[in-house]
Amino acid sequence: MYAIGEILLVVIGILIALQVGSWNEDRKTELSEDTCRSKLTNDLVANTWNINQSMAWIGLRSNISLS
């Protein structure tokens, strides 16, 4: 009977360790997604600014050549 109790305790310990590992992987995935989302947002802002600057420069240049 004692051996069955020890086996059961080991199995429960393994299941808990697997669950903790799963939680940790989920947390890492979530952090990775947040980092990726943040980088994409920053790139979008930078690209929008660059496009606006280019459009302003093209508009300024076309006004100068028309004069």
UniProtKB/TrEMBL annotation:
<dbReference type="InterPro" id="IPR045749">
    <property type="entry name" value="DUF6090"/>
</dbReference>
<protein>
    <submittedName>
        <fullName>DUF6090 family protein</fullName>
    </submittedName>
</protein>
<dbReference type="Pfam" id="PF19578">
    <property type="entry name" value="DUF6090"/>
</dbReference>
